[in-house]
């Protein structure tokens, strides 16, 4: 038995009491969001009807390095946090690698993913401001579930617009949100103008994330005392998710370990932004030099094959524009099963850090390799990972195998964002050899790029 | 923030390295198992063709107080253990109770329940003995999943006979087992004589646990180097599950706490036997006097309304007979959703301790109250419990409310055995007000008692 335990949990008195705001240490900020009507930088007045006041302030805060976590949010965090930092001894043995592999496991809560970290914060600020109704959208359902949990805890009504095809294919996901008291509306619906417009054109529409976002925002803006909440991409989300990296760093410090390589999967950037946090701060301040790898699906390669440009955050073109790596908001990714990574863009902050060379590498991996890694990992480390999370596992295994070949004993840290209990249809396809890889052609990508707004 | 943390994890060097064998401290043992053919006490020779040698020894060991956990099993445990001991501050606040509520949460592993604790041990001993094939049955699927995880880890082939209607209703449960490499055969099947016999009589049979057990045992006994494994009832299972109580006690000791009341749900007795373990040892030795409550469904009330008598452990009447609280092996419980508690009997050791007054109380609760407790708990403590586990929550809440009324600040400890992610159909019924209570009439119970074997 080694001195370093399999699982390390920070003692409660060492848990982070503030969120680390990476932007306070960035030499340059990402370009501002633009108002889609005026194409001028958004103002607080543009944001206030949509988001809570405190969250608007967090969204534009580039100066405070640490932002205190309210006691009420800490009380919520402490029911499911700290998440464990796990030394993957069994995986190391299986791979015969001299590398030391660590992972932070964020799936040990009922939402099954890290999304709860930001849901708790966003709902709390809404409650504090006296908001009496929240709306959001959900695709695969992780975000909707996390938000339903937080909303029921803080006792604030929530309406979730759930992409209709997801609601049909995943009735149990819907049922969990309802068990937590959320109202789940399959989108497009007849409850909003945008929903009715889509249904008028196509009564059989099975919906899209873009449409669900439009419905959720419409209701938030038109209902008194109502606000909209979003689970990724935004800087406020990255701020809350920084707790992942802060906890991981505190635990690694306790063990006397420092990662050579840090790996996260990347869809909208919320978990990659979370695991990097204080380690990225070290790099920006010249105090450490971990090698950061953001892993995305080869079928939706916004960082590896996208453009760094202004684009809408939603397919419906209703949100502010952000400067980010993007495939164009009209790019339609193939229906790979890692639903959480099917996003055309990328967090503006992660994009900027990648563009400026602080995120060292973006890596696109194929779905077949991802599930192969997931199946191996589940058998050896016992945790059945979400397909999204398995992208990070895939890259971590590749790095560990490289170490076996080179004889180097590098320290690898990756973020295991969630569990795959609601992704069994994808695993069934994999088990039956029916999973297909899909890599978009240059022509297909070009169509997406053609949808980019023309902005100098 | 109180001094006692929300979550307590034992440090790795304080994790139990031995299983506590409660029988070594019992003043009287339960009556011996009987060979169903001869009605004489079973011998090692009767057991050896069915179970591994070491497990047979554990099954009859009434003298060793502690049995060392093999290093290989410890390595497996340490990927998902220790499980947290959680102080339910938020629930206490919600209930406005002066009681202190603690729960041991055993659901934080991919199998979603405590079943993994015994699966790991049973598979390890099989591997060590050179067994090359394992068989088992599963109903709801928790045990099958746990065993599939352990079997893939220790690299030993496993065939799971899954009650056909479960396999049809829960394709994802089946898919998880397959992802872990198990072969899942819907039962009754044409792969065994007992299966073929049932299909000949009733080609449309949707199966039963009794039939699945018969198929699994038949294959184990007739395949060279093959063994059968079982997830509850047996003393070997109680032994392995004792790790729950040992960890809980070590953590409570660390906090300077001692429970006044200890609560577990009770189906076959594996988790109740687990959480009681060393605390029951205290009671047997006169070193402590916690009040033990075993909670069962009102629809399947083996302890509260059953007889203490010899009975078969399976509906197929193929297994040895055990002296236990039973409703009669032909009693057919209503299809309540807590599948794991739909068992006609009860662990012989738990039965004996109840009969001799060391388990203070058995309590039957109605399904509607159970789901009401589950819904409240999930919102306040964030964890969505399995319906089985919610029986314990229901009793814990009742005890905490009594404390509010009496002003007593009792310390309550209960075992939260698992998560309800695969029980959403039941939650959907509850959410829609469609859940029904069912309490068997005396006449219905009498029919079950009529099936009891006549033994003096």
Give a verbal description of the structure.
The structure is a homodimer of 456-residue chains. Helices cover 42% and strands 16% of the residues of chain A. Chain A has helices at 44-47, 53-59, 71-80, 89-95, 116-129, 142-153, 164-169, 171-179, 193-201, 209-222, 235-255, 270-284, 302-305, 348-355, 367-381, 387-406, 424-431, 442-450; strands spanning 7-8, 18-20, 66-68, 85-87, 100-105, 133-138, 158-163, 183-187, 226-228, 261-265, 291-297, 307-312, 321-326, 361-365, 411-416. In chain A, 61% of the residues are buried. Chain A has 456 residues and is α/β, with parallel strands linked by helices. In chain A, α12 (270-284) links the parallel β10 (261-265) and β11. A seven-stranded mixed sheet of chain A has the order 1-4-5-15-10-11-14, with helices on both faces. In chain A, strands 8-7-6-9 form a four-stranded parallel sheet, sandwiched between helices. Chain A has 18 helices and 15 strands. Chain A has a domain at 7-14 and 69-112 and 235-449: Rossmann fold, CATH 3.40.50. In chain A, α9 (193-201) runs antiparallel to α10 (209-222). The model of chain A has no long low-confidence stretch (mean pLDDT 93). At the A-B interface, α3, α6, α8, α15 and α17 of A face α3, α6, α8, α15 and α17 of B.
